[in-house]
Amino acid sequence: MSKINGRPSFSGVYPVSDAAALIEATTPHPELPSTSLKPLELITTRHLFRWVKEGLTGRYLAGLTGREVALTFKDLVSLRMVAIFRSYGIKPSEIRKAHNILQNERGWSHPFAMEPLWISGLNIYVRENNIPIAITKNWQVAFDFFDQFVGPVHRLLFNKDEEAQAWEPVEGILLDPRISFGEPCIKGTRIPTQVLWALNAGGDPPERIADAYEMPVERVNTAIDWEQRLEQRPAA
User: What are the sequence ranges of the domains in the chain?
Assistant: First the structure.
């Protein structure tokens, strides 16, 4: 995998190191009540490898280790959801339970990437006919107040079948496996954010880059800020 000044170059399938960079850079760190379990504060490749081993991604990854592991977009989304759940202090055992229940109920290989999910307290929910269902309470109908909505946090875009088809980690930046092999791009274009970042790192000011690509300078700055956010991720 090629790199620019040490920055991973995203292409096609995601190596675990790339996925860890994306996930750590965008995982929320909410303030939790003192009664909550300790949340996961830093997402590393070690966590992702463990979650892959636990079967929280596609079954085709079972038994693979190290450089053998290459993640699809659905794998990336699934691990992203696991990271969000852990950041809210949900137990690993409860996450595995929710994954297995959804997998059995829906018959999906990637249940965390197939429909919008919610968090309230330490429970994970789906909706059926607009009725909240607590997955982690053995598929019980729930009527408690939803004070934390996961949808806007992970910013997934679903198709008509409610399958995750793209991810907008920050406004204006899109990862779509159908565009530029899933690289982070300026939304609505096929221009990878890494290209704009590299031009700026090479000395071109945002205004000149914006003129060259015929786009508002704000969009160039968004791309640069996003890439700097990935670059500043702590070493795993």
Answer: 3-231
